[in-house]
Specification:
This protein is an alpha/beta fold. Helix content is 42%, strand content 18%.
């Protein structure tokens, strides 16, 4: 398939390109700052907030499928500029879907939202895709709106649109704005001679981390054979304490710094929601393949 990937220059976008081209697909790679051209990859610079630019992109690409990754992916960024986050995460989705409706109606489309749509859900069992949304951040609200808007637009316009709600994903090449690469950067600096002090937030929070390479494999499988109109959870099913991640990284890098709590980073302990992934497992045969230690080794090696 010829697959349009928006947000192709981002963390997940770069891994998605590698996954898609490795499995015989060609990629139309779109971003404000797209990646370089390569085998099976054609770059496109575009602004998702400019509907005429989005229309021109889709008209030129004529994709068989679309992986819509572009968006604000950092929770604090959405909190600091909510209007921009909503414009990108919601209005941008509608610009892309409108252009697909006009120029590539048969394109199988996967809109990536977030497990943050569920909030800290009180459900005692893992959360299924039909559970109500209870977002607890402006970022989560924007992603919930994007999820609902994408599926409703697809239904009304007769487009094969799916959404996927991934949990936290980590892997080589992630921005140090996120907790695991931030730990690695500090530990690497300490190993290189910096003062042996780690400044951290709340180490008792728990997260479900999925290797980004497993995440983008799930995206590929959904594009190939997911059910149009469906929503899919995607997560490893393994919750881990942030402090345990730090312990494993210290062992990998061979340093034992003094740990100090940074009030600016500290938040009350919480846990990401536990997601039921039976739908994606049943529909496309997805399951995580990387264990946490393998992922952490890859992050350290790439740092």
């Amino acid at each position: 398939m010829r697959i349009l990937v928006t947000g192709a220059g981002g963390f997940a976008g770069r891994h998605a390109i590698a996954e898609l081209t490795a499995h015989g697909h060609t990629v139309e790679a779109a971003d404000l700052r797209p990646p370089a051209a390569g085998a099976g990859v054609t770059p496109h610079a575009f602004d998702m907030l400019d509907p005429s630019a989005v229309d021109a992109l889709v008209r030129a690409a004529r994709p068989d499928a679309c992986l819509h990754l572009a968006g604000i992916a950092y929770v604090p960024a959405a909190a600091s500029d909510p209007a921009h986050a909503f414009a990108i995460n919601v209005i941008g989705v509608l610009h892309v879907l409108r252009a697909l409706s006009d120029h590539a109606r048969a394109a199988r489309t996967l809109v990536v939202t977030s497990a943050e749509v569920y909030g800290a859900h009180p459900c005692p069992a893992p959360i299924r895709e039909d559970e109500p949304f209870r977002p607890e951040s402006l970022y989560g609200i924007s992603k919930a709106a994007a999820d609902e808007a994408a599926r409703l637009f697809g239904k009304q316009m007769g487009l094969p649109v799916m959404t996927v709600r991934p949990g936290n994903h980590i892997g080589p090449g992630q921005s140090p704005s996120f907790v695991v690469p931030a730990f690695v950067r500090q530990l690497a600096a300490i190993r290189a001679g910096a003062a042996p002090v780690m400044r951290v937030g709340n180490l008792d929070s728990r997260r479900d981390f999925t290797d980004v390479r497993d995440v983008v494999r799930g995206y590929r499988l959904l594009l190939e054979r997911g059910a149009p109109g469906a929503a899919y959870n995607l997560a490893s099913g393994r919750q881990v304490r942030i402090g345990d991640i730090l312990d494993r990284l210290q062992a990998l890098l061979g340093v034992q710094p003094r740990i100090e709590t940074d009030a600016a980073r500290y938040r009350p302990a919480n846990a990401s929601p536990q997601l039921d992934t039976s739908r994606i497992r049943h529909d496309v045969g997805w399951a995580p393949s990387f264990d946490l230690d393998a992922t952490l080794r890859a992050i350290v090696a790439a740092a």
